Write a sequence for this structure.
């Protein structure tokens, strides 16, 4: 890029000099025009920005989701589970906070590979207001129970830019969310002489397809948006997923930026297996605040 700018400046100088045959006497007006043209050229190419179109990007920060969770767990003894609203029936807080991190690798001008990780652990203790069948046991009205729902989400996605310009890009995404879940319920030991508890775990791979866009709004400001959806059945797991995200980046200094956004995910999983037999419907959405660090060489973006 620096060599190209240098050649461009030489061209601006050489044409008037050659035409007028006055190589030793360039006017101050010509210098001003050349400088202005050079600045306009610099401004028009967003890949000169230190935070934009770098080979690698690492993001880490906090996520504050609002949750809505419904679950039904059948027992191995033929006990049909009750559909439970974790927030209403078991007293889980709707609002929570969590850690999230991402890593992006721009393989080429149009290709990119991204990975995300998100973890959320929740628990509650409540006196039941209705009878609940959960796993192999029945939890009676007025029973005091402790429950937990821990989940980790890993995602990998490949993106291809159909439109690739210095100040805006847009394209397609193909990837998969993988959910690692653990949930359980136990009766307060003070209410019974024997321990009554049910614990379950599951892993649910959910592929998805989507679209994305990235835009340079100014020298320090960028915008990113994506939407993903797919319904699929894999072995004994049937589910669908929709996720979305919108974030605004502000470049603080050189390669370091701050990112504020809003993201959400909704999925439903029906599974039949030894460790989990039932269905889970979970949705969350909320704001994110993250730090962003970009490094590596710039990926060359072309105006034409």
């Amino acid at each position: 890029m620096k060599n190209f700018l240098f050649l461009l400046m030489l061209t601006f100088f050489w044409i008037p000099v050659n035409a007028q045959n006055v190589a030793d006497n360039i006017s101050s007006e010509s210098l001003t025009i050349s400088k202005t043209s050079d600045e306009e050229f610099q401004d028009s190419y967003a890949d000169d920005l230190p935070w934009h179109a770098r080979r690698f990007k690492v993001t880490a920060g906090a996520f504050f989701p609002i949750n809505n969770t419904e679950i039904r767990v059948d027992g191995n003894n033929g006990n049909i589970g009750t559909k439970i609203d974790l927030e209403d029936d078991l007293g889980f807080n709707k609002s929570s906070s969590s850690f999230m991190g991402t890593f992006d690798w721009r393989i080429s001008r149009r290709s990119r590979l991204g990975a995300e990780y998100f973890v959320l652990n929740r628990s509650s203790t409540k006196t039941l207001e209705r009878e609940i069948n959960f796993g192999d046991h029945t939890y009676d009205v007025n029973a005091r129970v402790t429950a937990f729902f821990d989940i980790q989400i890993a995602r990998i996605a490949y993106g291809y830019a159909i439109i690739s310009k210095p100040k805006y890009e847009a394209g397609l995404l193909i990837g998969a969310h993988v959910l690692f879940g653990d949930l359980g319920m136990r009766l307060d030991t003070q209410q019974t002489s024997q321990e009554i508890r049910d614990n379950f775990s599951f892993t649910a791979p959910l592929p998805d397809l989507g679209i994305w866009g990235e835009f340079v709004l100014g020298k320090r400001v960028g915008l990113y948006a994506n939407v993903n959806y797919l319904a699929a059945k894999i072995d004994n797991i049937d589910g669908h997923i929709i996720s979305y995200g919108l974030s605004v980046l502000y470049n603080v200094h050189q390669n370091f930026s701050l990112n504020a956004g809003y993201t959400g995910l909704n999925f439903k999983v029906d599974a039949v297996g030894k460790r989990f037999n039932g269905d889970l419907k979970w949705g969350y959405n909320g704001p994110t605040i993250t730090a962003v660090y970009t490094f590596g060489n710039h990926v060359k973006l072309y105006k034409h």
Observations:
- Residues 1-44 have pLDDT under 50 and may be disordered.
- Residues 125 and 146 are 4 Å apart (CA to CA).
